Amino acid sequence: MLACISKNDRAHLLFAELRKLDSNILDLGIVRASRFAKIRGALASRTLDRAQLRTDMDFSPVVANSMQQQTECRIAEHSAITHVLQWGAMYAPLQPSSRLPYSIITDGPFDPDDSAYPVEWTPKRWKAEYFARQREIYTGARSVFTLSHWARNRLLALHPVDPAKVVRIGWGPMFSGSGPNLEPVDQLYFVSIGNQWRRKGMDIVAEAGRLVHRRHPEVQTIIAGDPAGMRIPVMPGVKLIPRRQSQTEVAVLLRNARALVVASRFDASPHIVMEALQFGTPVIATNAFGIGENISASTLSPDGSPSSLAERMELLVSEPVKLHRVQAFAQYSSTGSWARSAQILFRSLQHE
To answer: Are the C-beta atoms of 24 and 346 separated by less than 8 Å?
Structure first.
């Protein structure tokens, strides 16, 4: 019996699709560190910076051990389990002494030497320890399933893992849409949605929106999500919605937009891309990380500059909307569903 487990709620849609392929697959749910473990992790951090303290705490060995112990307890309740599939490589689901095999799903490995890696995901106190921990987890896994080709390439570059056991499965949206929107909309706007605006490059999107508005006064660019401390000045043609968006709000913004604009400074495999494509909404994006793997070459920016993004936005102002929407939905249909990811993963495990 295959058992699935995760440390966050991103995995439940993939696990649900796996259970459709085999009803005997067991979902063990989400594991969260105990409050006591988090306090111990915070005390061991040795920093007075609040943001760094939180990161060090979340990635500390104490927290990882707490989550591993909880995972092992859940596995021990089911004697029929023969393989464990875990989303995330913060901890191994089992001690090496247990001869039960496990596989890992990851959107990318931690790279302590990558200057683009977000500060909020870099445990300064545990940087070397966390890297070594991931190496042990990846090399001990029966298989490693990556969401993107970028993640697969990074993993193989950083760790001595057999390429034959690293499989790219793709990724999907965090909510389901209702198919492509081929109807004309009254408003002409582009949209960028995401939290942590600095990491998401929202200042770059704002400047691109300003450039487009200067040449096309009827066009607006909407930027929505939790800014997490980044301030973007008021600009003509740019509307800011500085708060987290519900799934319903995200769906409305995406469904009626001329395109989604993604200018992330770091974004391994953003779900918002698939959420846009499932509505037939084109994606204009920086060609970096895993972002460009499911996007038309004509809407990819090679350098991620505001002027380059603005050029691609202007193309979608002047060219027929319906054609781009049909193409965007076709991209989603061929590469972007959790059902497809589950099928690739399931076949890979069957062939082991």
So the answer is: no
Are the beta carbons of 2 and 349 closer than 8 angstroms? yes
Question: Taking Cα atoms as reference points, which of 72, 129, 131 lies closest to residue 97?
Answer: 72
Q: Report DSSP state, residue 349.
A: H
**Cα four-point dihedral sign 140, 69, 151, 56:** negative
Q: Nearest Cα to 62, choosing from 36, 41, 32, 92?
A: 41
Question: How far, in Å, CA of 225 to CA of 261, rounded?
Answer: 13
What predicted TM-score, i.e. pTM, was given to this entire model? 0.94
- How far apart are the C-alpha atoms of 352 and 349, rounded to whole Å? 5
Query: Residue 241's closest CA among 225, 219, 259, 220?
Result: 225
Domains of the chain in sequence order: 2-172+338-350 (3.40.50.2000), 189-335 (3.40.50.2000)
pLDDT, tens digit, 9 for 90 and up, residues 295-349: 888 899 999 999 999 999 999 998 888 888 899 999 898 887 899 999 999 999 9
Please list, in sequence order, all residues whose beta carbon lies within 8 angstroms of the beta carbon of residue 43, skipping any fewer than 6 positions away.
Answer: none
pLDDT in tens, 195-235: 999 999 999 999 999 999 999 999 999 999 999 989 999 99
Measured from the Cβ of residue 83, the count of other Cβ atoms closer than 10 Å reads 17
Q: Which residue has the tokens 């058992």?
A: 3
Q: How far apart are CA 133 and CA 136, in angstroms?
A: 5
